[in-house]
Design a protein that fits this description.
Elements (H helix, E strand, L loop, with lengths): L1 H28 L17 H26 L3 H15 L7 H32 L5 H18 L3 H11 L12 H40 L7 H15 L2 H11 L4
């Protein structure tokens, strides 16, 4: 009886060992597809292959320079500087916060620059994507709307300054001015305009500060900060004249497009 029991146990163990080995062999035999990634540098056989590579490089370059383009070649600089002057003149410190000012300036920039972007798309980008014009022609056509916008908003004195500093031949017409000269001239023109507008914005709020300070001095309340008392009057004046609507509308209309 014991012998038969032992034989049965050995048979069961043999079956278990065999099944385990079979499962292990089957599991090791199963292969899962793993995608491979290969990076190869090959010689281009057709001009189209080179064009695709150049398009990718150009796109990456534009994405890298996007912040500089946004600041130097759009109305963004003037709008942000004026809004910061307005906040300082009102004495509201960090209200509205920088995120709100930058966001509003971005949307206003898009509204102002929209005609220029549409013209670039119609005359340069879309024909190039449709293979109607070459890369060089598209680049030249894209510069024309940008140059037109910059020239309309740049002072001749600022252009003359950078033409002199660049030590280049004086352009015969405004259309002959290179972007290397036009872009910095446009930036300092925008800064000058923004500072002039900032000065104008400061005047009414400065008058309120002086009136409040004089009243407090006459009442003998010299220890009370005039800025704290004048702030509600500044806010009331700004709301009564619908300041945000007036300033935003004036800024958008002030750009020649």
């Amino acid at each position: 009886m014991d012998r038969q029991k032992t034989i049965r146990v050995m048979i069961v163990l043999a079956i278990l060992v065999g099944a385990t080995g079979f499962w292990a062999t089957s599991a090791s035999a199963v292969t899962f597809p793993i995608p491979s990634l290969e990076l190869n540098v090959t010689t281009a056989t057709e001009p189209e292959e080179v064009a695709v590579v150049l398009e990718i490089i150009f796109l990456l370059t534009i994405l890298t320079l996007a912040p500089a383009i946004l600041v130097l070649m759009t109305p963004f600089t003037r709008i942000v500087v004026i809004f910061n002057f307005l906040r300082q003149a009102m004495g509201t410190q960090s209200s509205p916060p920088n995120q709100v000012i930058i966001g509003l300036a971005l949307f206003m920039t898009f509204f102002i620059i929209k005609p220029v972007a549409i013209e670039i798309y119609d005359k340069a980008l879309n024909p190039y994507l449709e293979r109607e014009i070459s890369y060089e022609t598209a680049f030249v056509e894209a510069q024309k709307p940008i140059r037109k916008f910059l020239l309309l908003n740049t002072r001749e004195a600022d252009i003359a300054l950078f033409v002199k500093e660049a030590d280049i031949k004086k352009p015969e017409t405004r259309d002959d001015v290179s972007l290397m000269v036009l872009i910095p001239a446009y930036v300092i023109s925008e800064l000058k305009t923004a500072f002039i507008v900032g000065f104008i914005l400061y005047i009414p709020f400065l008058v309120i500060d002086m009136v409040v300070a004089s009243v407090l001095l006459a009442m003998g309340m010299m220890m009370l900060p005039p800025v704290m008392i004048s702030l509600p009057f500044k806010l009331m004046l700004f709301v009564l004249v619908d300041g945000w609507h007036m300033i935003t509308g004036s800024l958008i209309k002030s750009f020649g497009v």
